[in-house]
């Protein structure tokens, strides 16, 4: 409810988001602030809590999948006139399962785009052994995100995950070449205490993490969780415990759910001004709108092999909706920069969101600072609630639908 009202208020319209069947992404020349995301949809086994699009790893699917992915990258690079890109992220799924093919894909990216920023990759703890770091470094990666989820047996049991000694695996990545080591933790699991999450945070930092991402446990309607997440108040206490331990360890808050060592760069695959997503289910955000690729490995390969676009759904944003999308992720990052808004949209931020930001300042949710609005602790807590509402109301519906209907005609989300 709060998400719907807030969305209407900010959009200044009760118009629903209407996704229609996708056309080829409209890419035309150099794109400012462009990032690339590659979705690798394979996992050794499928975790029951995980909402991301993935299939059980089948070695026979790798070659055709990699060929299609390279083809998709090549075609986009041509349309984007070999645009420069500020970051490349591989997520999934478990991208490291592609083994030697990662280098091949990296080479294709280098041929198709001018890569000017760092490359990052998500790792499952089981991916890591003594030579993972050097293999990744040779393939051009300098940032990793490791899905530990928890170091406590009771929490791992709720998630249905068994994993060995993850802290020593994280420590194996502590190599001069890996400038960022993010560790993902989940909070709000049934039975989890403030001590549990603080202990998880401490273990991750002691093992060498430069960033900790703490995600509130979300029970997606199509997941298979045996137990529900903790309620709002208990999640709030756990988040408070995270804030305390991060301050104790000298980590500063870099977004609503991430905390980083002061001297370290951020691992953040979603907060780009523009991005092109490759692979099944990958999303793209471009000046022309937002789109998503088909949620099926077979359909994805088929479409690319036949020279068709793998885009299954798209939304044409109004100017205000596009600006709102930017505002949403800026608030997530706790910093709304007037200069960045001007560079991207060619007009002052206050012209679009003047009274809303003044109202937020009056309510103590943001503070004016030089050329920006900085989100306060109170604002960050409200956003923590809004983002969970947004996940339930939009992401769960869109992903749930796209998984069951690879090539939909239309999807209306109110
Ligand atoms: C694409 S996933 C996984 C990365 C890697 N494959 C792994 O399993 O370690 C990225 C992160 O999303 C978070 N995540 C997944 N499902 C979640 C859920 N239901 N609620 C909250 N966070 C979740 C986890 O912390 C996970 O590490
Ligand atoms: S949590 Fe990771 S390993 Fe588990 S299903 Fe999701 S992407 Fe795969």
Q: Architecture of the largest domain, according to CATH?
A: Alpha-Beta Barrel
How many helices? The count is 13
At the fourth CATH level, what is the homologous superfamily of the largest domain? Aldolase class I
- Arithmetic mean of pLDDT: 93
Give the DSSP E fraction (strand runs of 2 or more residues): 15-25%
- Please give the radius of gyration in angstroms: 21 Å
User: How far is the N terminus from the C terminus?
Assistant: 11 Å
Reconstruct the topology from this structure.
Blueprint: H1 2-11, E1 17-21, E2 34-40, E3 42-43, E4 55-56, H2 59-79, E5 84-85, E6 87-92, H3 101-112, E7 114-115, E8 119-123, H4 132-138, E9 143-149, H5 153-159, H6 166-172, E10 180-187, H7 194-207, E11 211-216, H8 232-248, E12 251-255, E13 258-261, E14 274-278, E15 283-286, E16 289-293, H9 297-305, E17 311-315, H10 319-332, E18 335-337, H11 338-345, H12 349-362, E19 366-369, E20 372-375, H13 377-404, E21 410-413
Parallel strand pairs: 2-6, 2-14, 3-4, 5-7, 6-8, 8-9, 9-10, 10-11
Antiparallel strand pairs: 1-17, 1-21, 11-13, 12-13, 15-16, 16-17, 18-20, 19-20
The structure holds S-adenosylmethionine (SAM) and iron/sulfur cluster.
